[in-house]
Amino acid sequence: MRIAQVAPLALPVPPGQYGGTERVIHDLCEALVGRGHDVTLFASGDSETRARLVAGAPRALWKKKGLLDPLAPVFCMHEQLFRSVGDFDVIHTHTDFFAFPYARHSPTPVLTTLHGRLDPPHVAEALRLFPAVHLVAISCSQQSQVPQANWAGVVHHGLAAENYTFDPAGGEGLLFLGRLTREKAPHAAIDIAIEAGVPLTLAGRVDPAARRYFKREVEPRLDHPLVRYVGEVGDAEKQALLGASRALLFPIDWPEPFGLVMIESMACGTPVIARPKGAAPEVIADGVTGVLADTREELVVAVKAVQRLDRKACRRHVEKHFSVAAMTAAYEQIYEKLVTGKQAIEPAPGRAAVV
Known about the structure:
- By secondary structure, the chain is an alpha/beta fold.
- The protein has 2 domains: 2-158 and 323-340, Glycogen Phosphorylase B (Rossmann fold), CATH 3.40.50.2000; 162-319, 3-Layer(aba) Sandwich (Rossmann fold), CATH 3.40.50.
- 35% of the residues lie in helices and 16% in strands.
- It has helices at residues 20-34, 71-83, 100-103, 121-129, 140-144, 186-196, 211-218, 235-243, 260-267, 280-283, 296-305, 311-321, 324-340; strands at 2-6, 38-44, 52-57, 90-93, 110-114, 134-137, 151-154, 174-177, 200-203, 227-231, 247-250, 272-274, 290-292.
C-alpha cells in the first residue's frame, strides 16, 4: 500500500527529547516500511526515517529563530501533499485540522489521528463542520469527548519495548517526567512526595506559556531537600531515570488523551501512580502495573503500596497491549477499510487497540 504520513513541523521525527506524537509517528513509519508498505513521510528535513522523506521545512520549526509565522510552512506542506494526492492509496495526517479542507475533496482517503484534548467547545465545532473526515482517537476517553464525530477507530499508542531497558530492581525515589504545566500538576507531585517522605526527581521542560505557573507553583517547592529538578532530558537519561525509580508520579488534572510516558515507564518495569483521569484507567492495570488514586491522601498511600507490585508485570503489560506491532496492525485494518470503501466498525471500550 502507498501510504503518506504527515507529521507536525515543530519537532523532528523522531524527536531528540520531548515529543510523544513525533515518536509515535516514527515508530509507525518504521513498522509500516518493515511490513512492505511504500511510505512517504512529510516532516521536517532533519527527521530520520527509512520512509521516503519529503521536507515540509528544512529544519524543525522550533529550531528556527525569528520565525514570524509558524503556520505558513505547515499550510505549504499540505498544499504540496495534496497536489500529489494520486501518488498515494491513503493519507494519514497527525496535524490536527490542517488537512480537513483538502480531505473533503480528496479522491484518496484521508485519515487524521487527533493527538490532543477534544473537550474545548471550539474543537467540537470544528469537527462538526467536517463530518466526512475520517478520525482516529488515541483512547476511548478522548473519543468520548466528541462521540458524534466520524470515528474510524480507537488506536492506542505503541512503543518498541525492546528499545527500553528493563530494570528489575528500580529504586527508592519517585519520578515526575513531562511538561511542567498546571494540567500535568508537578506541584501536586512534589507535595505528594514530600508528604510521603520519599525523594522526587522532576524532569521536563517549561513551556513559555507555563512560565508564570512554574514560577508561582513549582519553583518555590524546589527548595525542599527531597526535591530535585533536572530539566528536559534525552532518551538515554530518561530511561535511566525511569528504570531507577520506585514509581512514576502522574497526578494529572486534565483529561489526558493518552500519556505516552506511562507506557515508557512500565516498559522499564516502573509502575505508575496516577489520578484516574483521561486515558489513565485504559493504560494502567490498577493494582497490577500501578495505582489509580484521586485524592492527595490516597496518592500518598499509593507511594508505599506501589512497592508491592511486580515490575515484570509492568513490562509484560506493555508488550501485550501497547506494542508497535499492535498499533501498526490496527492502523493497517483502518487503511484497508478506507481504501476498499468499507465502513470502520464502532469502537468499544477496552485496553487493547480497537478498530
